[in-house]
Amino acid sequence: MNTINEKLQPILNTVLHRNAGEAEFHQAAREVLESLGPVIAKKPEYFDEALIERICEPERQIIFRVPWIDDNNQVQINRGFRVQFNSALGPYKGGIRFHPTVNIGIIKFLGFEQVFKNALTGLPIGGGKGGSDFDPKGKSDHEIMRFCQSFMTELHRHIGEYVDVPAGDIGVGAREVGYMFGMYKRLNNRFEAGVLTGKSLVYGGSRARKEATGFGTAYFVRSMLDVKGVDVAGKRCVVSGSGNVAIYAMEKIMSFGGKVVACSDSGGYVVDENGIDLDLVKQIKEVRRGRISEYVELRGDGCHYITGGSIWDVPCEIALPCATQNELNGRDAKTLVENGVIAVAEGANMPCTPEAVDLFESAKVLFAPGKAANAGGVATSALEMQQNASRDSWSFAKTEGRLEEIMANIHTACHETAEEYGAPGNYVVGANIAGFVRVADAMRALGVI
Ligand code: NDP
Ligand code: 2IT
Q1: Are residues 221 and 156 part of one domain?
Q2: Cα 371 to ligand 1 centroid, rounded to whole Å
Q3: Could you tell me if 268 and 168 lie in one domain?
Q4: 395 in Cβ contact with 371 (< 8 Å)
Q5: Domain containing 66: what range?
Q6: What CATH number does residue 249 fall under?
Q7: Tell me: the pLDDT tens digits for 248-273?
Q8: Shortest-distance atom of ligand 2 to CA 168
Q9: Are residues 50 and 68 in the same domain?
Q10: Residue 252 annotated among the catalytic residues of the structure
């Protein structure tokens, strides 16, 4: 386990006490505070206890009832959340997650991570996150629409182009953003394009936003390997999940010449030694909204499906966890290291447990934390906001070009910051310190608010 600077321990104790029972938020806060020791040692002006305490306390937490009527005319009740964590750098910005596991602790951990991630992009966006314990699986299109409309009936009074700009996350893609945008527009009687991102291209979305998170993760992996003089081409790669992030991480890794041999969903994983057929995965997931188990029936020979199990048992050189938090534990990390993994990048938010991260660090495996590796999604959301504000629409090439540049800058910032603070090659320390310094500088400039 990493140790925490003794001056920061009381702040962590307060966070644990004030947010009792919120295990994921504790995990995220502990990781950031553990990284800050070298900053307060080297630059004592950053040891401002009250400022660090404020960084760990959301500016606003909203919890609301979401009633809706299902296709059997039954009233259903879910809980909605929006945690507006920090607006020192710009309007709150971050996705909305629909998944039965959502609770306030999960949204708080995601919002906290978002603050530092958004700071790393260098763009003017604060951090927030929202969601609901609504389970979209098996729901009809009408049920999804009614749920989104009810959710927005409450959320609309808390968001706005200059206030808080939600987007997608697990269970929320362009369809759900569209239903939410439609309801927001109706309730406010204004076409405020910049209030949500991840919109469809037909009414104000940005080209390359759908691809951005996964593409960005692959760019980050390429940058880490570049430093070591290693090429992505020819490397075996395993990607967990088969949703938005996983699909486009696979696409970019393949375009770099990497060979993706496995992907998954919450039911199990497929292994295809001929290389995953991405068009088929898109057909199953983006068009049919089906299960990854269908891949084997449709693809035929040369592949197999494992129900449950751990996708990390599949040997690979590059591992990209792109599903959900804590999906890769110490046992998985040990297996990956034994099988010769050289790089791990978190496409998802906090998919590796602290034990797994420690094992990667001690085995000298290149490890990219989510707040750096998956920042391409929110960065391109900020580019969508720029296009909306200027009533413009950029080409795919221009937008992807900006994304590539932003990811390269994030990689450089993490790499150089880690070196500056005596932890060369440690991207966790680099990302946390670089993100923290940007937020802390802005908060100090704004005074105690
Ligand atoms: P999607 O809903 O598109 O896909 C999620 C994928 O992960 C699905 O394959 C899903 O399987 C699987 N999954 C979700 N929950 C679990 C679980 N509890 N156990 C096992 N598998 C699970 O979401 P995204 O691709 O958008 O998000 C994936 C991750 O990336 C999340 O951590 C998200 O926070 C993060 N992220 C997303 C960004 C974005 O722009 N969308 C940006 C940055 C980070 P199943 O369908 O069976 O549930
Ligand atoms: O975790 C994330 O960065 C996202 N789900 C994307 C947030 C956004 O505002 O695009």
Answers
A1: no
A2: 15
A3: no
A4: no
A5: 60-194
A6: 3.40.50.720
A7: 999 999 999 999 999 999 999 999 99
A8: 5
A9: no
A10: no
